[in-house]
Design brief:
This protein is 55% helix and 16% strand. By secondary structure, the chain is of the alpha+beta class. 23% of the residues are buried. Its main location: cytoplasm. One of its GO terms (cellular component) is cytoplasm.
Length: 314
């Protein structure tokens, strides 16, 4: 007898979960535990650093090893009389929200490993020593740490497949569809956390280029467009190179600094988006020009091409 398709997928879920729990064991019980022990002895790095690297990996490991994997195993053993996994996954889904913290912390964790490996040779040696063990399968700590980040999308794919292969009259159909919806929401939550983190990092990088002026730094701002522009001076019919940062609430008109110590640009002018008007100018002497007029003042600007001008106006 051939195994039904949905059972094959449920078995794949169980097998990948076993491998995943082994990976979590390696991260929590070996890397984290041993690095923490050495940190407590004051030999490698501050304890805080180790905690920051591993975030909430212990909770994630405990949850999968003590709850989810045993429940799945029990289900697969009883498959012949109770062919279903949807209800188990529904119980799992709310706990997956704790991945948000781990995922958000991931880039910072990888950066800390790099920074402290350079600062502290004993720290680097200990990691290298663990990486040489058979259990690491010739892979780096960073590689193993990526696994929890990829786990939720993997559940989503497997479950989608499982629902697709279920016979229409399967007793698991309702539960499995509901479980898939829940996993989908968790994945969205996790992706939104990453997107928000990236937005803030990019915003911070822009603020640094602008010299971190107090009245400009605001985490709720959104950078819409930036780039070089020519400023037209009607007085002496010439242009000079400037740089624009357009946010959702303000346009910053900047001058590139010659000596780049600290900031890259000096903010010469802020025009509030509120009440701002923009229109194209048909100037034969200066093609691709447009006028930005705000409460603060009016600027005549020239782009490098028609596409660029249209992109700014838009």
């Amino acid at each position: 007898m051939q195994e039904p398709e949905e059972k094959k997928i449920a078995l794949e879920l169980l097998e990948t979960e076993q491998a995943y729990v082994n990976r979590l064991h390696l991260l929590d019980q070996i890397f984290y535990t041993e690095l923490m022990k050495e940190a407590k002895n004051g030999k490698t790095v501050p304890e805080e650093v180790v905690k920051m690297i591993f975030s909430n990996i212990s909770s994630i490991y405990q949850f999968h090893a003590k709850f989810f994997l045993p429940e799945l195993q029990k289900r697969m053993e009883d498959w012949s009389c109770n062919p279903r996994i949807g209800d188990v996954i529904q119980k799992l889904a709310p706990f997956l929200k704790m991945y948000g913290e781990y995922v958000k912390n991931f880039d910072k964790a990888v950066e800390l490993i790099t920074v402290w490996s350079e600062k502290s040779p004993p720290f680097q040696e200990l990691i290298a020593d663990i990486q040489k063990r058979k259990v690491c399968a010739n892979l780096t700590l960073q590689h193993h740490m990526l696994e929890p980040v990829q786990r939720i999308p993997r559940y989503e794919l497997l479950l989608k497949d499982y629902v697709r292969k279920l016979p229409p009259d399967s007793p698991d159909r309702d539960d499995a569809e509901k479980a898939l919806e829940m996993i989908f929401m968790v994945a969205k939550h996790s992706n939104a956390a990453i997107a928000e983190m990236e937005r803030l990092q990019n915003l911070w990088a822009v603020y640094q280029r602008l010299g971190l002026e107090d009245d400009i730094v605001d985490p709720s701002n959104e950078l819409i467009k930036e780039g070089p522009i020519q400023k037209i001076s009607t007085r002496n019919n010439s242009t000079s190179e400037k740089y624009l940062f357009l946010f959702n609430n303000m346009l910053l008109y900047c001058v590139p600094k010659v000596i780049q110590v600290g900031a890259e640009f000096q903010v010469h002018l802020r025009i509030n988006v509120d009440g701002m008007k923009v229109r194209e100018l048909n100037d034969t002497q200066f093609p691709h020009t447009f006028l930005v007029s705000g409460k603060q003042r009016t600027l005549e600007l020239q782009a490098r091409s028609e596409e660029e001008m249209n992109a700014w106006i838009k």
